[in-house]
Amino acid sequence: xxxxxxxxxxxxxxxxxxxxxxxxxxxxxxxxxxxxxxxxxxxxxxxxxxxxxxxxxxxxxxxxxxxxxxxxxxxxxxxxxxxxxxxxxxxxxxxxxxxxxxxxxxxxxxxxxxxxxxxxxxxxxxxxxxxxxxxxxxxxxxxxxxxxxxxxxxxxxxxxxxxxxxxxxxxxxxxxxxxxxxxxxxxxxxxxxxxxxxxxxxxxxxxxxxxxxxxxxxxxxxxxxxxxxxxxxxxxxxxxxxxxxxxxxxxxxxxxxxxxxxxxxxxxxxxxxxxxxxxxxxxxxxxxxxxxxxxxxxxxxxxxxxxxxxxxxxxxxxxxxxxxxxxxxxxxxxxxxxxxxxxxxxxxxxxxxxxxxxxxxxxxxxxxxxxxxxxxxxxxxxxxxxxxxxxxxxxxxxxxxxxxxxxxxxxxxxxxxxxxxxxxxxxxxxxxxxxxxxxxxxxxxxxxxxxxxxxxxxxxxxxxxxxxxxxxxxxxxxxxxxxxxxxxxxxxxxxxxxxxxxxxxxxxxxxxxxxxxxxxxxxxxxxxxxxxxxxxxx
Length: 538
What we know:
- The chain is α/β, with parallel strands linked by helices.
- It is built from 14 helices and 12 strands.
- The chain is rod-shaped and about 225 Å long.
């Protein structure tokens, strides 16, 4: 409960225990076994910060933090606690200004960032890339910047990796060598992120971190509740979100020095889940931010089962501490109790190690920084009760608040022109040009085939014509030869006939000659005979 620039945390030996508002950016720890009251303490602190006008961000791992959106329920036990803490005149059951967020877009406004916002360095760490792969990813981002290609979502990054892979030989001289193995390794590393919902987390409109640093019309700090029930089951995506958020806070918030109250306070419930399976780089980043973000006016509070769940470099920065009961049934648990006891400033009136195991539900050992920044001695404290509902809020309440909290601008995803669209357009243009070139080549081929066929047909026609001409010529020659032969035959027949006629004539002439000769001979004989006779008979 916020009062007089202090947060009233509870009673210790009848005296009020306060946490100083101006020291609350020194971070804190709320620890204790399950069921000992950690969530109640966290909600009580968050309510007080909101009442003080300090915006709050809470990771709701179990789904019960949403009850801050509704007023608490009156009960006999609550009335007794109100009287116990002496706050009858100050206490009222009330709801707080809550804004719900959910990366999976189921229980709150979407939380989106762009690939460019995350950058190659953080993305490389989230994906667990090797040094060589990280170098290649930096080149890919550089090429995208140089070509004016926006990397908004995972499909942009994936197509950019494929594009660079296809043209890597063109970039060797300007950017350096990129092996196929490294490019393939980046693509493989994207698969878990995609499977865990990275396509929902990366995109537009991107979240403006300053939308978490708001107050309502009454000056109360806005309580931003991120639904993490599903998110914590997907460590790669959870790490991506936290790394981005830490880097964004550190880079964008100006130095503030010592303030009367923080600008923003974070609560990470079930923090053991955050550190147990988190990538080493995430732990290192949290350590860095916890050490440095205090000067930006940001307080970070981890809620977990045991202080041993928090890495020592982080634990050393957590000055405001609330330790609920721990159980010590095993040697490891006994050691955890001892470590938790040693982390407090000693109180001569109690034995911390024993008290930790004796605490009841709603009780805790507390130690906060005083106004001068000095840790107070550990005290056994009964934690004050929250004013909001100690159960999940109704779905109708959630929907009602989401409809009027001013963050609906994030509800509808926007897919502006980015690397994917530009490269796909270029590929479509290249494909169209290739198609046109193929069509031109096909036309040229068909024309060539047509010309070849035409030439072939012409040659065949010429050949046929030559053949026909040769046949005609041969026929003509044959006919001429036959005509000549006929003529020769006729001439031979005529000649033969002529010769026969001439022979006949000659024969006739010969017969006539012979006849004449015979006649002449006969005549001569007769003359001769007559002469002889005349001679004889002279």
